Amino acid sequence: MYDAIIIGSGLGGISCGAYLAKNRWRVLVLEKHSLPGGYATSFKRGGFTFDAALHVINGVGKGQNIYKFLEWCGVGDQVEFLKLQYFVRFIFPDLDIRLPSGDLGEVRSVLEKSFPQEKKGISELFKEAEIIYNDIFRFFISKTPFWLQLPFFPLLYRGLFPVINKTGAQFFNKHLNDEKLKATLIGNWGFYGLPPSRLNIICSVFPNLDFFKGAYYPKGGNQVMTNSFVNVIKENNGEVVLNSEVSSIVIENGRAVGVVTRKGEKFLGSKIISNACAEETFINLIGKEKLPERFLKRMDKMERSISLFCVYLGLNEEFTTKLENREDHAVFALNTYNLDEDYRWSMNCEADKAGFVVTLYSNIDDTLAKGNKFVMGIAQVQGFDYWRNYENDYLKGNKEEYNKEKERMAMLLIERAEKIIPAISKHIEVLEVATPLTLKRYTGNTDGAPYGWANTVDQGSPLNRMSQKTPIKNLYLSSAWTFPCGGQTPVIISGYRLGRKLSGR
């Protein structure tokens, strides 16, 4: 009998598991794949280490807010985080700008130099953003249940309350006029899955301000960070079992009491925590007949996040010797300042038009490739519906047409990336590609949605995001599908909050 059984080893699950194990709970984590981590994994090909989805991580410098969550989960000193010189470089049609990492004053100076007419607005925006940011963090770490805070929310969070139901665009419009500047502040909207016109305020302010304060990369790759959580669980007498897929959650008298795996093994636990996709959890592992109709109707109306198309490149030594972009890490190339238009192109999988990001991993971490070789990634957010046309054949193993389209898009993105970084295609040793169908297959997330439910206003506030507590007693969620939102650091916060709630510590 376990104190907690966790379904899935994504960061939301293992951060919760680490917190509980550290507080003397007997924890069992069951993972269907051969590696823990979900989207927070790394894989190796031909001497190169590739991150499945991570580009950069926010707020993990010692003393910063996200680092505190790592410390509370017991992993703060287990990972070396490499600080980036620049959080991001944006390349727009007539603007090429780098935003520094680690100093808000420097970020403001760069923006004021490029947009001198907006100096006052920039100052006011950053001032209010800092207030909102501090309120969000205080809410994240508050030990008072939300329902007890609710009557006093306007007084407790004076900065956050007036904007809790605002979009990022509404926040930017309040202070700024220049559309180019607004796009520059969140041209990396793909990190959150929505343009500012639909993105909730938590995602618009909290992560990006953290990135400006300090953007980092875990030395050795994302798997190193994942493994640190796993180590905490194991060091505190917990278990993490790989290649063990959960097929059902055992419900008795309206309570979750255990799980059954595909191998027929049955495990009993006082608390069951799902890190799996919400729809997988409720529809497939439990069954609609055991859930309230009202809950099912609400879930059916919820919007899933956009997905990802990823190109993983291992490049030879000659490429490294010729590379001039040595200070860059994440480089976003966008064809428009109209981010709603960019989003439409992405949803329609118009790979020749939609923005994309080139991540120069080896510029910050030379341990990811042997010798003087180089690891690079190219990613573009994409809608799942386009790839749904290939899904039936894909599942049957008939991948000829799918592979043609996958390769066409990959080469198109490489060709576009070569306008920024020349001659990539001449130096490729390893080329791997992941589509939204790949993401769905490996994670089980409906529509290959890496951010869970879309980070909209309607699905992003504490009142509207799917609760960690479910209609089934003793069953909880800790993932991108619950509060606070999707993304690597938010799901760590989700795990910490649930672990603290369950343990009472």
Task: Supply Rg.
Answer: 22 Å
Tell the overall outline.
globular
| Major sheet characteristics | 7 strands, mixed
The helical percent reads 25-40%
Quote the beta fraction. 15-25%
From the N-terminal CA to the C-terminal CA, the straight-line distance is 22 Å
CATH class of the largest domain: Alpha Beta
Spans of at least 5 consecutive residues with low confidence: none
What count of helical segments does DSSP give?
Answer: 19
CATH architecture label name of the largest domain = 3-Layer(bba) Sandwich
How confident is the prediction overall: mean pLDDT?
A: 96
Domain count: the total is: 3
CATH homology group of the largest domain: FAD/NAD(P)-binding domain
Structural class: alpha/beta
Beta-strand segment tally: 19
| CATH fold category name of the largest domain | FAD/NAD(P)-binding domain
Structural commentary:
The protein has 505 residues and is α/β, with parallel strands linked by helices. 54% of the residues are buried. It is built from 19 helices and 19 strands. 37% of the residues lie in helices and 20% in strands. Strand 7 (86-92) and strand 8 (95-100) form a beta hairpin. Helix 1 (11-22) runs parallel beside helix 10 (222-235) and helix 3 (104-114) packs antiparallel against helix 4 (119-141). It has helices at 11-22, 65-72, 104-114, 119-141, 146-149, 153-156, 168-175, 179-185, 201-213, 222-235, 278-286, 293-301, 317-322, 339-347, 385-388, 391-396, 400-417, 436-443, 488-503; strands at 2-7, 27-30, 42-45, 48-51, 57-58, 81-83, 86-92, 95-100, 215-218, 239-241, 246-252, 255-261, 266-274, 307-315, 330-333, 356-359, 374-382, 428-434, 475-477. Strands 1, 2, 10, 11, 12, 13 and 19 form a seven-stranded mixed β-sheet that branches. The mean pLDDT is 96. It folds into three domains: 2-79 and 219-303 and 456-503, FAD/NAD(P)-binding domain, CATH 3.50.50.60; 104-213, no CATH class; 306-443.
